[in-house]
Design a protein that fits this description.
The chain is α/β, with parallel strands linked by helices. About 45% of the residues lie in helices and about 20% in strands. Strands 1, 2, 3, 4, 5 and 6 form a 6-stranded mixed beta sheet that branches. The radius of gyration is 17 Å and the shape is flat.
């Protein structure tokens, strides 16, 4: 079962746990559950630092403190993206509370998303190897999991 977006839009913990429990309920016994989440620091790292949202939206920087504290992303313009962001430990706890057995939580992109020349690096064999090895080396480091904009939790429904 893939949850590649619902957790972004459920700002109440009870609703996220309910969605995760429903996913575990409909997958076959022993089957996998994959849940994507936005990292708590995605707005700062991806939005403000990498994409310079402060240039197009003066609110971008002002909203960071509140969103990093609460996890709730406020839209930068009417009809703009709103969502919920997770700390890695919080995502682990929600998976555990919902029923499936947690396997792992990793940083999807890791710090590679900050590379302005990522496309070129991936096109070169040696550079691609270094990028992938770096991402693999850091994807499970507890202090660094939240550095990438997205988290991926893997779990499975208990057998029988």
């Amino acid at each position: 079962m893939l949850l590649l977006g619902p957790l972004y839009h459920l700002d109440r913990r009870a609703n996220r746990v309910k969605a995760l429990a429903a996913a575990a309920r409909v997958v076959r016994p022993g089957g996998p559950v994959f849940a994507a989440a936005i990292s708590r620091w995605a707005a700062r790292l991806d939005g403000v630092l990498r994409n310079r949202l402060y240039q197009s939206s003066p609110l971008a920087e002002a909203l960071l403190t509140g969103s990093e504290r609460t996890g709730r992303l406020t839209p930068l313009s009417p009809g703009g993206f709103t969502g919920y962001t997770h700390r890695p430990g919080q995502l682990r706890a929600e998976i555990t509370a919902s029923g499936p057995r947690l396997t792992d939580v990793v940083s999807v992109e890791g710090p590679a998303f900050l590379l302005s020349d990522l496309g070129e690096r991936l096109a070169d064999d040696q550079d691609r190897r270094v990028v992938i090895e770096t991402a693999a080396a850091l994807e499970r480091v507890p202090e660094l999991i939240g550095i990438g904009p997205h988290l991926l939790a893997t779990a499975h429904r208990p057998p029988g």
